[in-house]
Amino acid sequence: MRSRLRRLVLGATALFTAASALPAAAAPSQARAEQHPSHDGMSAVIRYTEYGIPHILAKNYADLGFGTGWAQAADEVCTLADGFVTLRGERSRYFGAGTAADGALSGARTNLASDLYFRGVRETRTVEKVLAEPAPAGPSREVRGMMRGWAAGYNAWLKKNRITDPACAGASWVRPVTEVDVAARGLAIAAISGEGRFVDTITTVRPPTPATSTGARTARPDAKAVAKAADELWGDPGMGSNAVAFRGDTTANGSGLLLGNPHYPWQGGRRFWQSQQTIPGELNVSGGSLLGTPAVSIGFNAHVAWSHTVSTGVPASIHRLTLDPADPTTYLVDGRPERMKKRTVTVAVKDGTPVTGTQWWTRYGPVVTSLNSQVPLPWTATTAYALYDPNAANLRFADTSLGFSKARSTDDVLASLARHQGIPWVNTLAADRAGHSLYTQSQVLPRITDELAERCSTELGRTTYPASGIAVLDGSRGDCALGSDPDAVEPGIFGPARMPTLKDAPYAENSNGTAWMTNAERPITGYERVFGTVGTQLGLRTRGGIEDVAAMADRGGLTVRDLQRQQFANRVPAGDLAAGDVARACAALPGGTATGSDGKAVDVSEACGVLKAWDRTMDTGSRGALLFDRFWRKLERAVPEDRLWKVPFSAADPVRTPNTLNTDAPGLAGALADAVAELRGAGIALDAPLGAHQFVVRGGERLPVPGGAGQLGVWNVIQPTWDAAGGGYTEVPFGSSHLQAVGWDGGRCPVARTLLTYSQSSNPKSPHFADQTRLFSGEKWVTSRFCEKDILSSPKLRVVRVHEHR
Description:
Strand order of the largest sheet: 21-19-18-8-7-6-5-2-1-34
Number of strands: 34
Shape: globular
Oligomer: single chain
């Protein structure tokens, strides 16, 4: 049986190799074949190895998209179908208008708000207009083929297979999709940190009436409140990551090394999905794709590896409109009136009458009236505010990623970024076989220069821009337009020359901090405030990450195994800084008691010894980790940041400051009392091993989960859900996701270890629903099968040839 499989695969490989190795004269006919598939339709060969990882072999990009769409549907059909309901604006029709939206593709709180926004996108043909743009502003022929093929593959899987996932088995909302649906998902992902965060206000704005204008005519937003809300909005993006690239002179053999550790949701439409994509002679890449997208988002090939981290750049700007006194839906630019565009959208509602909503759009973008429910931006008779998000029409992420997939060096990675300029809200870190390292914050941002902000900020913007990076510009002045860089792919965004970039440092590390401290010895400066800050306090995860990787680089001789150890070191920088001081302060409490926030005295004497003996890690066997975790969360709420440490932050020593816990701060003893009382109330021993109370349940099996909160500084981020009655942290909605540790050893194949923490499929009936989650629980990895000899030698090899039948 094994030899028969091997002959089948070798035959398919030979067929595809012959088909792809066409002479130059055949290239035009190959292009026509991709644009007009044969009567037999698209096809691909999918070789499955351990843990259900598919290796997709195809003749061209359309067929590659076909195989990818088929294989994603096989693992995640319900999650994907749910996302397409969102993109069609049909959640209210199937699930009810008032139900909470899924949150994967926008920040909408309800299905109705989500539908009003996405129906508006669909009815204005926004996606079709972007698709029609010639490359590089629009997608390339290769990416168009992949998107068309992905839709065909998804549809072919639906036609041929019965859905077993109880989440959508038999559901009428699982329907075939089109290339436009696939492209719409790409646009939604790109805009999720801009327009996507403002869906609720975009869909509920109303022009002022004479009655509402009377009291609001002189209303002004609170500048400090707006700055704080903006900082919270983009400072906590709901996603995160760590990544580090090492230069060759720090490694054992002179090749580069890359460790990628994105922190994403464990459920829903922002999950990663693993695959290898191969067009012989053209493309060979392995990695993780965001669901519903046809290209590999983070990954590696035989020459280069890359990963992304969520950046500090603010991907939107706000423009204050000066309104025509006679008409609040007309605004003035250089004294000339422009009417807002009224977008009227109607959505169907389950068991109810259709709902019609209105939106108001300007040359800058939609009118918005708040940053959150507590911080209004009032639309008065004289003033309104509009949001500009350049990613709302950015469909270039797939082409940028495809360029990475074909890269042979970090310079090629930079070249793809410069050509396509499609990365919406992340940094890129990369390493290559030749020993080069790279960090760049090459992302699509509104072209807000510090000079423009100084010249054109409103009174509100003069507070918000320096404090949070969100510009509030005077939209009534034509000279305050964002302008264009000569190397930018479109007006209104920065060109590649302005991007904070660090090449060939011994290490380049990012844990969602600013570009400034990518390498402590080679700080990056000189970029515009919209990209992030310089000389400001670092988060504990950034501080801990730099400490760790700088020490690794200094030690040298690094291998992939060192990357694996770093991922699961589970060190707690907050514990290293503070646990000893807390234990001593605890021991000094009179009578061993402290008063909790409820005014009750709590015996905390046992906690002193537990904290003293704690190993300062978040390993599943660590005793004292849970106690410190619960204490630290309460301490940060009880004690202001500027009173937490005795030694304040210094820009001259950013990695080691602030330090020395202020044990005299009011609230510290109370936080300890509250943590002790909480654990005892839940029946949890203060020295219980972490894994006994930080776990997930999969198929009735309880799996301990290593790692900890980013606010503790832990590299291996796990943000679990606290359920004291259920036994502690009982589910993980967010945290480490698609892990990859990649290097080279002189052979043809990269040396790669990967791990998809939540496993490949959301279907509880799939054999790949929890298999990699068990590995994550045990801090084990998957050895990547990249080269043909490794794929063919897999003891779990299963070959599926998939066709489009017409």
